[in-house]
Amino acid sequence: MTATILRPRLLDDAVAQARPVRQGVVTSAVGLGLTVAGLDAHVGEVVLVGAEGAPQTAVEVVAADPSGVRCMPLGRLVGVTAGTPVRPTGRPVLVPTGAGLFGRVLDGLGRPIDGRGPLHSDALVPLDHPTPNAMGRARIDTPMQLGVRVLDTLTTVGRGQRMGLFAGSGVGKSSLLSMIARGSDATVNVIALVGERGREVREFLEDDLGAEGLARSIVVVSTSDEPALMRLRAAFVATRIAESFRDAGQDVVLMMDSLTRVAMAQREIGLSVGEPPATRGYPPSTFSVLAGLLERAGTDRIGSVTGLYTVLVDGDDHNEPIADAARSILDGHVVLDRKLAVTGHFPSVDALGSVSRVASKVTSRQQRDAVTALRTVMAARRAAQDLLDVGAYQRGTNPLVDAAVDHQDAIDAFLRQGMDERITAAASWDALGSLVRMLGVGGGA
Question: Boundaries of each AAA+ ATPase domain copy (predicted)?
Answer without folding.
Answer: 159-340
